[in-house]
Design brief:
By secondary structure, this protein is α/β, with parallel strands linked by helices. The protein is built from 18 helices and 17 strands. The protein has a 4-stranded mixed β-sheet. Strands 13-14-15-16 form a 4-stranded parallel β-sheet. Helix 12 packs parallel to helix 13. The radius of gyration is 23 Å and the shape is globular. Bound molecules: iron/sulfur cluster. The site of iron/sulfur cluster has 11 residues, from loops.
């Protein structure tokens, strides 16, 4: 409900006089307490009575919930089993835009990329024909970015590797992801403010898409290329609108310290009695003015993301960030009045050694030392959030295997042990099993459909189900094939039929640079053409 992309799409649909749009959500609570039928929120209509049921998917782990929603709507899960009069099932959002294949057996139509222009084009075509499923599917033909999985038949070699897709439809079958060149054309902000939702206490604004830094693990840094920033002139009226509703203004982007004019905008929010809350800050681009503005606005906690503990590991992932820069940012934030820092780091990154893992402990201790030296007794709280690395499509690390679960557990325990003696330092970790599921759903192809059906059938036993299937039992593809297998350099990847804008050869060269611990400078979108996105 809080997701900005979902809210932006809902606003576009609600503003279109040809469309009656309503929202529906998977119910909270235990499955036994769910209603018998999923109905829409405003009109209280059964989902199956709509012409289209569309899902906005930000996270791969929501794929099981797509099946839950379809079942609760009384619709057959697989697209081939739905009748001609069933609603068209559509999906979009960043998770499917990275790799739609895990849902290809369940979804009739994907819109790949940023929705703003593409959705309007689809509606223009749909409005001229019928509203039955076949007519709506035909309306998608010719919409750049529309992907109909029924037109693609994957073929596999004797080793089970994807060989190619047989395509039956107009054009070449290449799906070109869409993006919006000038973000200022569309405001993306909180549309529905409710205290009951996550971030309900803040008015959230999208400030940028993509990121100029090219961290090699980060899907957002590649899928949204080239980086685009909203202008301060476009953001100011939205901030004013937000301040009329809420005191906290959430400024959302992959990396907010690089936003042109960010310090002045945050200071303006603070001067008007508001609290600026940027989503994440790259430590070396934090300035004293930004730190002061955050402090003046009452931001007591700030998130910085070193991503890795050691300088070596940060070179591998192309973080372009030294320890001195991190510590300098801690000094400035403390001087500005910030009392707590949240540090995001990962374990299990390619080439990681125990020395790199220990680097996380060292870095956290040094940052804490700086915060303590900065001042008041309240100062110095640190939350270290540690996630296992999940290799993502569209990144230079898309070929990498996820580290073995036992190894990830060992490394997480090593960090926890190292940090356990430090007061006022909290550690939170994501479980390696959840990372396994995320990797499966990120790197999988459509053969994992039966796995999703099993997870939907017994959600409480999701790990037991995956464990049982590992090793290729029960006539279902072995999930380890997608999680713990490094993809070969020349291998056809499940998402290769999408034109990513970023050249696959560029991703491969970035991977080679990672292994050589070589850094790539940040994007200069005025002069550079190296990856193909500009
Ligand atoms: S072409 Fe250059 S500036 Fe543009 S997104 Fe690619 S690396 Fe960045």
């Amino acid at each position: 409900m809080a997701n900005l992309g979902f809210q932006a799409v809902y606003r576009l649909l609600a503003a279109d006089p040809r469309v009656t749009a309503d929202r529906a959500f998977l119910p909270d609570g235990a499955r036994a307490e769910w209603p018998r039928t999923l109905r829409s929120l405003e009109q209280d209509r059964p989902l199956a009575s709509f012409d289209v049921v569309a899902f906005s998917l930000s996270f791969e782990t929501d794929y099981v919930h797509v099946l839950d929603c379809l079942a609760l709507a009384g619709l057959p899960l697989r697209r081939t089993e739905r009748r001609a009069d069933a609603p068209l099932v559509m999906a979009g959002g960043p998770a499917t835009f990275l790799n739609p294949e895990p849902l290809a057996e369940f979804v009739d139509l994907f819109l790949v990329g940023e929705a703003e222009d593409m959705l309007g084009e689809f509606l223009d075509r749909a409005a001229t024909g019928g509203t039955d499923r076949a007519a709506l599917l035909s309306a998608a033909d010719g919409v750049v970015g529309a992907y109909r999985p029924d037109r693609y038949v994957p073929r596999y070699d004797d080793d089970g590797r994807l060989a190619d897709f047989a395509y039956d439809g107009p054009g070449s079958g290449r799906v070109v992801r869409r993006y919006v060149e000038r973000l200022d054309r569309f405001a993306t902000r909180s549309e529905i403010l409710t205290d009951g939702a996550v971030f309900g206490d803040m008015f959230v604004l999208e400030a940028s898409r993509g990121c100029e830094w090219g961290c090699r693990f980060c899907a957002a840094g590649f899928m949204y290329r080239p980086v685009r920033y909203r202008s301060a002139a476009a953001l100011r009226p939205e901030i004013a609108r937000g301040l009329a509703e809420r005191r906290t203004i959430g400024l959302v982007g992959a990396e907010m310290a690089s936003q042109p004019g960010i310090a002045a905008l945050c200071q303006e929010i603070a001067d008007r009695g508001g609290r600026p809350s940027p989503s994440s800050l790259k430590a070396d681009v934090i300035t004293p003015a930004l730190a002061r503005a955050l402090g003046d606005g009452g931001a007591r906690s700030v998130t910085v993301a070193p991503e890795a503990g050691s300088e070596r590991m940060r070179r591998v992932i192309n973080k372009n960030l030294t320890e001195d820069e991190i510590l300098r940012a801690a000094d400035w934030l403390t001087a500005g009045g910030v009392e707590a820092l949240k540090l995001y780091v990962m374990v299990g990154l390619p080439t990681e050694t125990d020395a790199d893992v220990d680097g996380i402990v060292d870095l956290a201790l040094k940052v804490r030392g700086r915060l303590m030296a900065g001042g008041t007794p309240k100062v110095g709280r640190i939350l270290v959030s540690i996630n296992p690395f999940v290799p993502k499509p569209w990144t230079p690390f898309q070929w990498e295997a996820m580290a073995p679960i036992a190894e990830l557990k060992r490394r997480l325990a090593r960090v926890r042990r190292g940090l356990s003696v430090v007061p006022a330092l909290q550690v939170e970790t994501e479980s390696p099993r959840e990372a396994y599921l995320q990797t499966l759903l990120s790197r999988g192809d459509r053969r994992i459909a039966p796995i999703l059906e099993r997870l939907h059938a017994r959600p409480e036993a999701w790990w037991a189900t995956l464990k049982r299937l590992r090793g290729g039992r029960e006539d279902v593809v072995d999930p380890d094939r997608f999680v713990h297998r490094a993809y070969e350099p020349g291998e056809v990847l499940p998402w290769d039929f999408i034109d990513h804008a970023v050249d696959k050869r560029y991703l491969a060269s970035e991977r080679r640079k990672a292994l050589g611990e070589l850094q790539t400078p940040p994007c200069d979108t005025h002069t550079c053409h190296v990856c193909g996105a500009c």
